[in-house]
Amino acid sequence: MKYAVLASALLLSACVSVPVERRFPSVPAEIQAPCGNLQTIDPATNKLSVVVDSVVTNYTQYRECQAKTDSWIEWYTKQKQIFESVK
Amino acid sequence: MAWKTVRNIINTHYKCLGLDMWIVNFLPDFIFHVLLLVSLLALVASFVLDSIPFVSTNAKAIQLASAVVLAIALYFEGAISDNDAWLARVAALERQVAVAEAKSKETNTVIQYQYRDKVRTVKETQVVVQERIVKEAAKMDAECRVSPEAISILNQAAGGKQ
Question: Are the beta carbons of A78 and B111 separated by less than 8 Å?
């Protein structure tokens, strides 16, 4: 047992910590949030203004999700370039 | 199972060295420089200084010992040089990684600002459009009534259900 401990200590002393460690790049928290569901219209209504308001809200949500997706594409492209610049 | 885990941890975080590299890391470099110099001098002395009684009587033994020590010292000089070259490469790579990490953070900040800017524009547009809806609501509602079927179709499309 004594010799086993001694041998292990000797073997591990010949090991060094790998010096260069690369961390996976972080992503801004805002673009990690999932896109919400589209808004539905109250079936009891027959007003066009309510329908249009709901459509506008959904268009807005689409634009927000579009911005998020564009950000992800840009993030991936730029981070890939940075990652590949290290050789 | 436990041994596998330990081995995985060691393999992931540590690079194990051969005995020669372990010696190079463990002992200071000057020892090998001194060994090289001493063995070289002893080898030369064994050929040149045969007028000295001790050297002349033990010439073969000195030559053999100094040749062995010279070979070992030369080997370790090579190992030190190789080790230094690798350390230089590691240092260069560490610098590159540090620069890349800084660039990566900078890129994230730019992306974050651009995203916030786009979302702000989208929200501002929504406010303007909704103000128009409020203004025009009475006219729209007076001229047009939406059938329940149309609302059902829109809700079906929005819900994404068949």
Answer: yes
How many other C-beta atoms are found inside a 10 Å radius of the C-beta of residue A4?
A: 8
Asked if A39 and A57 count as a contact pair (C-beta separation under 8 A), the reply is yes
Task: Note the pLDDT tens digit of each residue in B72-81.
Answer: 999 999 988 9
Query: Which helix (DSSP H) or strand (DSSP E) does residue A25 occupy?
Result: none
pLDDT along chain A (87 residues), means of 10: 63 58 90 93 93 95 96 96 91
Chain B contact set for A39 (CB, 8 A):
158
Interface contact B37, partner A, CB < 8 A: no
B56: contact with A, CB 8 A cutoff: no
Distance between CA atoms of residues B5 and A9, nearest Å: 18
Report residue A30 as tokens: 């805002």
- Is B17:B25 a contact under the CB 8 Å cutoff? yes
| pLDDT of the residue at B11 | 58
Indicate yes or no: CB of A71 within 8 angstroms of CB of B151: no
Contacts of B36 (CB under 8 A, 6+ apart): B70, B73, B74, B77
ipTM score for this prediction: 0.77
